[in-house]
């Protein structure tokens, strides 16, 4: 019996249309469209917040069968102004998605998101279920208080205590019950050295938890740019405001999504978003296909994760075109 061939990313392609979406604020949102203009419309939602899209993100989709829409969320990537926090909430991002859909004259689209992008996908679908043909949710993040506490207070710190101590020690003053608030105070304060130290250690902490043994520490003398500080500020801005949603809002409203074809993909080794969240989402969406990858972690890299994600988009290409 032959072993099935692992799926890989589709070859690089160039967008045939790019534009800046005008909003009702100072934000201009970068949008690009590639693939087949007559294919299945899919919108890719990046994580972070503030990580931005990358060219290889187009490769999760067959360009002959999909019209692929990527956009950088407010203040992220190529969107302008970079790092702007005013008028930058979850509802603003959902509204931007609707503006994109309307401007591109798309009736329905597949919504594809991982980590924070997955949370945004679910929240968008709960507001606009009739506009969503299907969903692929990777590395489930439910944006609950318990999820934030796992990452920033009591959970992952037990697995990487040394790195966590660097994070906690980066702020001049730290309240052990309010780590995020303490880091935010340092990051937005007047002490430029402390500001860059917090940014460096937050990025290092996120990298360690997400990458595990594959994480490589940055050089000690690495220059922390203003752009890095702004990126961390946006992550903390969303965390500090509990992602601008009510606690457990995503799970509480999953009844609105039960008729949307969904594939949930989660790595068992994911320490940024532990697999409990994937299990809870599947319990709330029992019709969804639930794929557990025993050896995969948080990021959308590695043979197992790429294989599962491309297989999911290929599967929906066949289902939605027939």
Explain what this protein looks like in three dimensions.
By secondary structure, the chain is of the alpha/beta class. A hairpin with a 5-residue loop joins strand 1 and strand 2 (28-35). 37% of the residues lie in helices and 16% in strands. The protein has 2 domains: 17-143 and 246-321, Alpha/Beta hydrolase fold, catalytic domain (Rossmann fold, 3-Layer(aba) Sandwich), CATH 3.40.50.1820; 146-243, no CATH class.
Layout of helices and strands:
Elements: E1 17-22, E2 28-35, E3 40-45, E4 66-71, H1 90-103, E5 109-115, H2 116-127, E6 132-140, H3 145-152, H4 161-168, H5 179-187, H6 192-211, H7 226-240, H8 249-252, E7 262-267, H9 276-284, E8 289-293, H10 303-321
Parallel strand pairs: 3-4, 3-5, 5-6, 6-7, 7-8
Antiparallel strand pairs: 1-2, 2-4
Helix pairs in contact: 4-6, 5-7, 6-7
In a few lines, what is going on in this structure?
With 322 residues, this protein is an alpha/beta fold. 37% of the residues lie in helices and 16% in strands. The chain contains 10 helices and 8 strands.
What key phrases describe this protein's structure?
322 residues, 37% helix
- Provide the β-strand percentage band: 15-25%
Order of helices and strands: EEEEHEHEHHHHHHEHEH
Principal-axis shape: globular
Question: How far apart lie the N and C ends?
Answer: 30 Å
CATH topology of the largest domain: Rossmann fold
Extract low-pLDDT stretches. Answer: none
Return Rg in Å: 19 Å
